Each structure stands twice: as structure tokens, then as C-alpha cells.
Amino acid sequence: MHELARVHRCQLRHEAELVRSALEAFGVPAWVRGNGRPDGHAEVFVRGGDAESAREILAGDHSAGLEATPEAHLPPAPDELCPRCGSESVERLKRRLRRDTQRCRACAHEWR
Questions:
Q1: Is the dihedral angle over the CA atoms 22, 25, 29, 35 positive or is it negative?
Q2: Do residues 48 and 4 touch, judged by C-beta distance below 8 A?
């Protein structure tokens, strides 16, 4: 069994999944542990021998490759996520007498 090394820690599970996906796009297998907020943190692990490469990948600026990426393929903006659970499954609710609100389909949290 390989020894795992933590290379990233964040509050939201979806952020950790993006980091995992980025590492795997560069050929580095990665795993996510933890659910993120509100239960704690989500962490990204790689094999011990891949830790240095993974950290270099994460520290690098890969934004030049994003210029040609269609907006539909980019991760959601922070205001498009549920502030309670981080889910992308958010719907806008039109209200007549009050300001419009948003509701999370995953946890039913509502906010303005």
C-alpha cells in the first residue's frame, strides 16, 4: 500500500474535487477525504512519491489555458453556490412582495 501525502486542504468539498480533477488532468492520481463545511475540511491526498509534483502543479499558473475554455466548462462562481452546504444545485425564487431569494435543492436553505 502506498503512503498518502496531503497536498491541499479547503473548506468546501467541491473545491477539493476541483483540485483532485486538476491533478488528475496532469497525470497525478488524487483522492479527496472529508465533506467540507459545516462538518470540517476537505483534503486532497496523493501518493507520497507524487507529493512534490502535485505541489508544483498546484503552485503553477495555468490560467493561459483557461482563455480558450468556454464559460460553460468553468466552475461556478461563489455566489452560484449554497452558502450552507456548497451545492451547485441552486434555484432562484421570484417573490412578488419580497426580494427574490435563492434556495438550495440539496439542503433547502434559502437566502437573498
A1: positive
A2: yes
Cα–Cα dist 82/21, whole Å? 21
Q: Could you list the pLDDT tens digit for every one of the 112 residues in the chain?
A: 579 999 999 988 889 999 999 999 999 999 999 887 766 789 999 999 999 999 999 999 877 777 777 877 777 777 788 888 889 899 988 877 777 889 999 999 998 8
Q: Which residue ranges make up each domain of the chain?
A: 1-67, 76-112
User: In this structure, are residues 90 and 17 in contact, taking their beta carbons and an 8 Å threshold?
Assistant: no
Locate cell 496523493: which residue? Answer: 46
The answer to whether the pTM exceeds 0.70 is no
The answer as to CATH 1.10.150 being correct for domain 1-67 is no
Which cell numbers in the block locate residue 39?
A: 462538518
